[in-house]
Amino acid sequence: MDRDIQYENSNIGFDEQYTEEDGGGIKCKNYELCESVLPKRYFECKGNYLCTNCHMLFGTWKFKGQEYKTGKGILKITDNLYCPICLETKRSIEQPNCEHKVCIDCFKRCYYGDDDRENEPQFPYPDIEDEYEAEQGNPRWDNDYPLIKKYNEEWNKWDDEKNKKYENEGNLQKCPICRA
């Protein structure tokens, strides 16, 4: 793939890291799906316009000269198609390993799972959360902050329940129609 200056100029994106004040970055070719903004020098480093996540999930990978993962990389998006999963007519996206199309919401559900964080326990001391994350093994947290122990117990329980819910969903990262 050659550098596409026209794509770069017409697909400027902004997020927390690539702000409007700094001139932004370049949208991933699957931006509507992943919402990733790439640094302007990304093409020089990677040779494509796919974020690392899209490249790993949907791209073609080679190992020592042998192809072992074949995907389209850039996924085609189409307006007003009937989704065979949710049975609604919506903006749809083509599967990376076959020609089937499903709506973007169902695609995200299949490839990314539910982002179920609504019941995630909240850290009891927001003002020291970053410090706690950096020094989790420090015994002072249990001694000086008694709610942290309870938080850890609740978080582990929440995480176990979430993992149990999704443990049998290994087939989700495949086409829901043909399982390719």
What does this structure look like?
This protein is α+β, with helices and mostly antiparallel strands. The protein folds into 3 domains: 5-69, no CATH class; 77-112; 126-166, no CATH class. 35% of the residues lie in helices and 16% in strands. It is built from 8 helices and 8 strands. Strands 1-2-3 form a 3-stranded antiparallel beta sheet. A 3-stranded antiparallel beta sheet has the order 6-7-8. A two-stranded antiparallel sheet has the order 4-5. Strand 6 (77-82) and strand 7 (89-94) form a beta hairpin. It is extended, with a radius of gyration of 21 Å. The two termini are 26 Å apart. The relative contact order is 0.10. The mean pLDDT is 82.
Give a brief description.
This protein has helices at 5-10, 31-34, 42-46, 52-58, 104-112, 129-134, 140-144, 146-166, and strands spanning 12-13, 25-27, 37-38, 61-63, 66-69, 77-82, 89-94, 101-103.
* Count of helical regions: 8
The strand count comes to 8
Structural class computed from helices and strand pairing: alpha+beta
Strand fraction equals 15-25%
In whole angstroms, the N-to-C terminal distance is 26 Å
Low-confidence stretches: none
| Total individual domains | 3
Report the principal-axis shape: extended
**What is the ordering of alpha helices and beta strands?**
HEEHEHHEEEEEHHHH
Major sheet: arrangement of strands: 1-2-3
- State the helical fraction: 25-40%
Largest sheet: 3 strands, antiparallel
Instruction: Give the C-alpha Rg.
Output: 21 Å
Arithmetic mean pLDDT: 82
Short descriptors:
single chain, 180 residues, alpha+beta, 3 domains, three-stranded antiparallel β-sheet, 8 strands
